[in-house]
Amino acid sequence: MFQTFKDQLKVENPAEVLRGQDGIFEVVSPYGYTFEVTCRPGSPMQVRELRHLGSAYLRPEHPVWEIRRLRPTAA
């Protein structure tokens, strides 16, 4: 799905895209929250909030999450 580290996806449900992936991803919510998500096949995802740029009170018309792969996970 992620061919290079520069690839960025826009999706409605990031869990569907990240399930089974291997690596560390930056995920930006429709509300402006930025998360670092660590994925390993066969393991639960680890999610850590990095920053919040928008307002939690904004309701986007089409909720879209942005996902970018930062790096592979350490072996």
Describe this structure in words.
With 75 residues, the protein is mainly beta. The chain has one domain. Helices cover 7% and strands 41% of the residues. The chain contains one helix and five strands; from the N terminus they run βαββββ. A five-stranded antiparallel beta sheet has the order 1-5-2-3-4. A hairpin with a 4-residue loop joins strand 2 (23-28) and strand 3. The longest helix is centred in the first third of the chain and has 5 residues, at 14-18. It is globular and about 35 Å long. The chain starts with 7 loop residues before the first strand and ends with a strand. 13% of the residues are buried. The model has no long low-confidence stretch (mean pLDDT 79).
Structural class based on helices, strands and sheet pairing: mainly beta
- Structural domain tally: 1
CA-based gyration radius: 12 Å
Q: Average pLDDT, to the nearest integer?
A: 79
Uncertain stretches of 5 or more adjacent residues: none
Percent strand: 35-45%
Write down how many β-strands occur, each being a DSSP E stretch of 2 or more residues.
Answer: 5
What are the secondary-structure elements, in order, as H or E?
EHEEEE
Q: Choose one word for the global shape.
A: globular
Cα distance spanning the termini: 20 Å
The number of helical segments is 1
List the keywords.
75 residues, 1 helix, 7% helix
Topology:
Layout: E1 8-11, H1 14-18, E2 23-28, E3 33-39, E4 46-52, E5 65-71
Antiparallel strand pairs: 1-5, 2-3, 2-5, 3-4
Please give a quick description of this structure.
By secondary structure, this protein is mainly beta. The protein has one helix spanning 14-18; strands at residues 8-11, 23-28, 33-39, 46-52, 65-71. The protein has one domain (8-71).
